[in-house]
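Please, does this match?
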Amino acid sequence: MKTRKHKEQIVKELKEKFEKAPLVILTNFQGMTVAESNALRRKLREAGAEYKVVKNTLMRYAYPGTPVEQIKDAFVGPTGIVFAFEDIVAAAKALKEFMSGDDSKLQFKAAVVEGKVADYEMIKQLAELPSREELLGQLAFTLKYPVNAIAWSLENLFTKLVTVLENVKAEKEGANA
């Protein structure tokens, strides 16, 4: 049995996570085996997220004053929490992939994204966005494109200038001959 001090520490940690995490998703994990639960934790960890199961009574002490308070009614029955701190898209993709199987026992309850309540459709849309690395690549291409276009234009301009000068030289040589 957990001591009062240990429970207070759990509540304090949860409150910090509720305040800091830009993505918090509540799930119902009833019927999941230990192997399935471990697979979910591993997949989320690979995506930079965390999955925790804590008693609802402790969570009720942790959410007041945090964005998660908006979904307090979802803290009924078996509740697992997904916390994503860095790449929320990768976490949403991992969770969607895990929930999309026909035999998946994991069910969506509620979510808070960047302080706003989100439904499962919004989480699916978030999961469809490009990853952080893909977005950075697109940004790099977008920033690099104008520079490349100017360089190409200047190169093309110099090539045309050389061609014109060669034509003028050939005409003068032809006129002098």
About this structure: The beta strands are 23-28, 49-53, 80-84, 107-113, 116-118.
